[in-house]
Structure to design on (889 residues):
């Protein structure tokens, strides 16, 4: 797959001046919409996770006419709900040296210097408001005996800034946003469309003006028009088939937008979470994450010698390799996710992995139980231990857990400016669906923070500046609407008419395996080239041989899946191209060719300190570079030794 | 292991529906229940048949989407476990498993095992929230909350809205679902200003949707995957009564 380089992106619309004043400046310069006019302005929000749910609720509250869409049967079910660990905020309630600046610094460093300083600083600023908002909504965060909020420290951070609600922080925050959304639905400001999937973006006169959706119960293809469209459709980790994402998570909404002109930034930046339950067999449909808070007390190890057949209890201390503690004495088991993941892969590649297929390492709580007692461990991790036992049938109190890395989060996404507006005017992208804040690696407990920052605080301000001009927008071009609708219908018909011999899932599994092998934890030029050769072949086979049963005019889950898989092929290709062109290693993107003598990721700031923003054109992808400048945080090579 | 499945098939709300028998072979004990159904569906698709429609999403027991009556028990035999977290090691070779949708008048069947639970959303719309516009909140530490209250509120707030409580109740009551939200918000200081009006509005909406009343049989809490306790219903009734008396 060839690409050419286009014009660099010069303006991200971030205000000038001291970094701590920029968001204040933007808030003041953003034009306001007269309350009487807001009632006449329509906004579509696709997705009801933390970002989409909070955005739709807030826009409704502000007085806009909002239409909200989700593919689930209720907006309360989006996959934000599965986040376990917590949410970061620079409250410094502990007095342990935290500050907005430190959260900003940690995020830029953790992102391996591939995120925008202005955006990250704003995220850290807004983080404190999120906690206030959530508490006022009744989110039952963990508290101490004095009645104040409890916090804990979380992967990669040396301060205690993570607020949590047992192991269900995402659930509680999402239900908070959901209740705010339901309040607006009752008030009539938000019109909710559940079991609807967005299949096309409508552009008219160069602006995003609506979406084409499929009613997943009746199969009816519907058009909804608006003055602006907000995509909050999450990440694309399911391109790997096996990931910790929900089964329904997909790339279709952002991929359709990409094909309609929105540039896609850093598609290869994928986060592989180190503590997931290993694959147990061929039928595996998804992977389950265990909160990485487990690494606070669990010790990671493998037998010193490969193929050691002995049960754990018979392996003496001096024949165990606590490899994270050995290689990274300063951070030990608490090194950032990308480092912990790759270290696990390395020991398994050496043949020292444990469990089925040798794809697992031990996470051992024996010492913690000895030190703190079983009760204390149960109090802290009881629900996670139960979950582990339910899935594996093994008791982690008496034998170590087996864990293995799994795809968890995608830092890449549609490119957005400081206002969270994509390269298509009127198309805003928030939450995991955009690329903006985490660089090449996201810190633990920062996804919830970003989703809510975007939805409650950033977008509602910046979208107003765009909508202040809504009265000047041209009437929507009927032809564009009709073409978008026809494109959707044709595609559905095409999927149903192939009538081949393989299911969409079987293609998806094969694509996922290919991506995991060649565009997963470790990438090489040779592997990526192989993937780029194989993906188009596999896509051609799909369109020749896929079998989708049933008809469009019914609830048809086979059809839904096939449509999503079709888009994953195209995305996979762009991910591999992006990974191939970025010959450096950074954060979650590890190129085997770019490592130091110790096997650590080696960045190449001279050539790659930019955001790779890909435009889709009829002649193939065009790369636009947005140079990253670091005025505040000095670029250093990360070291966790 | 080899199993016999009897699965409820219903093409739409107007179809009568019936149990259809399927034989499934080589089921691994490490499979999840839904993975076993995935395997069944792959076979059905290839045979040109309609796969069994069922709701599912996160497959880690938290989104509340999966919803199956397994051998007459909501979410199946394992306590505190959603259908998606149930694994086949709890079954034996040769077993017959009957799989049906939630059955309750306010949850009409959409197709096969998929039902319409939008009534739950409407109960939340009636008052399951604290009214606080974005950006207007005071500092989070302005209002300390006793740890015990926060913990009890959390326990009630863990409800995943799956609807097992309704499916298990002989009256088709949504009391446990509604009470969980009323308890969660009613235990917190932030929830006090709207406590009475919330209880009234939510209970009335629950009735309007056609859910039955509570007669304290406790089937709901027995099948609840999150173990929401029955005493939340007593709290709901108390709040409702107090609010009704006040406003006459």
């Amino acid at each position: 797959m060839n690409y050419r380089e286009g014009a660099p992106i010069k303006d991200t619309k971030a205000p000038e001046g001291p970094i701590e004043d920029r968001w204040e400046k933007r808030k003041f310069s953003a034009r306001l919409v007269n309350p009487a006019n807001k009632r006449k302005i329509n906004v579509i929000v696709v997705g009801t996770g933390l970002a989409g749910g909070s955005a739709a609720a807030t826009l409704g509250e502000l007085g806009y006419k909002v239409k909200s869409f989700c593919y689930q049967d209720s907006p309360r079910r989006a996959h934000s709900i599965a986040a376990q660990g917590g949410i970061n905020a620079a409250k410094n309630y502990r007095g342990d040296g935290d500050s907005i600046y430190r959260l900003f610094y940690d995020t830029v460093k953790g992102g391996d210097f591939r995120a925008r300083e202005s955006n990250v600083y704003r995220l850290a600023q807004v983080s404190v408001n999120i906690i206030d908002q959530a508490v006022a909504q009744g989110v039952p965060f963990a508290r101490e005996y004095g009645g104040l909020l409890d916090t804990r420290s979380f992967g990669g951070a040396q301060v205690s800034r993570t607020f949590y609600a047992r192991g269900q922080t995402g659930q509680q925050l999402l239900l908070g946003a959901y209740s705010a959304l339901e309040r607006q639905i009752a008030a009539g400001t938000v019109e909710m469309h559940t079991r609807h999937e967005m299949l096309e973006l409508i552009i008219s006169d160069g602006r995003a003006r609506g979406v084409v959706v499929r009613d997943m119960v009746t199969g009816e293809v519907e058009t909804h028009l608006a003055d602006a469209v907000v995509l909050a459709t999450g990440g694309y980790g399911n391109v790997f088939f096996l990931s910790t994402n929900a089964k329904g998570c997909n790339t279709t909404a952002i991929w359709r937008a990409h094909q309609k002109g929105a540039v896609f930034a850093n598609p290869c930046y994928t986060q592989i979470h180190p503590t997931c339950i290993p694959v147990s067999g061929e039928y595996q449909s998804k992977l389950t994450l265990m909160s990485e808070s487990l690494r606070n007390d669990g010790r990671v190890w493998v037998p010193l010698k490969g193929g050691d057949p002995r049960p754990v209890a018979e392996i003496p201390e001096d024949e165990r390799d606590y490899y994270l503690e050995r290689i990274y004495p300063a951070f030990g088991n608490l090194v950032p996710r990308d480092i912990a993941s790759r270290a696990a892969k390395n020991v398994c590649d050496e043949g020292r992995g444990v469990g089925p297929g040798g794809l697992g390492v031990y996470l051992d709580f024996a010492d913690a139980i000895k030190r703190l007692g079983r009760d204390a461990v149960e109090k802290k991790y009881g629900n996670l231990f139960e979950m582990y036992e339910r899935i594996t049938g093994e008791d982690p109190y008496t034998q170590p857990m087996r864990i293995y890395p799994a795809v968890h989060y995608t830092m890449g996404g549609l490119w957005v400016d400081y206002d969270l507006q994509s390269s298509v005017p009127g198309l805003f992208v928030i939450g995991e669906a955009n690329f903006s804040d985490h660089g090449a690696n996201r810190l633990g407990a920062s996804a919830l923070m970003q989703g809510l920052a975007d939805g409650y605080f950033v977008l509602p301000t910046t979208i107003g500046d765009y909508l202040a001009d809504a009265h000047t927008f041209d009437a929507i071009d009927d032809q564009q609407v009709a073409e978008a609708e026809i494109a959707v219908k044709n595609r559905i018909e095409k999927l149903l008419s192939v009538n081949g011999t393989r299911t969409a899932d079987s293609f998806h599994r094969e694509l996922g395996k290919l991506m995991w092998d060649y565009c997963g934890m470790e990438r090489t030029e040779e592997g990526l080239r192989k993937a780029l050769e194989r993906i188009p072949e596999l896509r051609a086979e799909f369109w020749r041989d896929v079998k989708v049963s049933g008809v469009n005019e019914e609830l048809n889950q086979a059809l839904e899946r096939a449509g999503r898989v079709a888009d994953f092929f195209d995305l996979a290709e762009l991910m591999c191209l992006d990974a191939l062109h970025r010959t450096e290693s950074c954060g979650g993107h590890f190129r085997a060719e770019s490592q130091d003598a110790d096997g650590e990721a080696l960045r190449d700031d001279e050539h790659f300190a930019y955001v790779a923003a890909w435009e889709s054109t009829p002649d193939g992808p065009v790369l636009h570079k947005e140079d990253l400048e670091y005025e505040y945080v000095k670029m250093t090579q990360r070291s966790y030794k | 292991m080899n199993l016999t499945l009897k699965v409820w098939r219903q093409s739409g709300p107007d179809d009568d529906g019936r149990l259809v028998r399927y034989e499934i072979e080589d089921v691994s004990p490490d499979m999840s229940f839904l993975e076993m159904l995935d395997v069944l569906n792959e076979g059905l698709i290839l045979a040109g048949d309609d796969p069994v429609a069922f709701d599912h999403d996160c497959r880690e027991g938290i989104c509340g989407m999966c919803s199956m009556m397994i051998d007459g028990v909501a979410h199946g035999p394992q306590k505190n476990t959603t259908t998606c977290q149930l694994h086949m090691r709890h079954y034996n070779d040769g077993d017959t498993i009957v799989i049906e949708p939630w059955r309750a008048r306010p949850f009409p069947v959409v197709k096969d095992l998929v039902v319409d639970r939008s009534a739950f959303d409407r109960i939340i719309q009636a008052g399951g929230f604290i009214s606080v516009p974005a950006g207007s909140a005071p500092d989070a530490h302005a209002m300390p909350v006793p740890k015990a209250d926060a913990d009890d509120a959390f326990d009630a707030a863990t409800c995943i809205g799956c609807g097992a409580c309704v499916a298990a109740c002989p009256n088709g009551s949504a009391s446990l679902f509604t009470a969980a939200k009323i308890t969660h918000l009613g235990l917190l200081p932030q929830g006090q200003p709207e406590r009475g009006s919330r209880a009234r509005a939510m209970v009335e909406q629950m009735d309007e949707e056609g859910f039955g009343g509570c007669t304290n049989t406790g089937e709901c809490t027995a099948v609840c995957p999150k173990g929401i306790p029955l005493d939340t219903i007593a709290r709901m009734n108390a709040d409702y009564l107090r609010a009704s008396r006040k406003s006459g």
The mean pLDDT of chain A is 96.
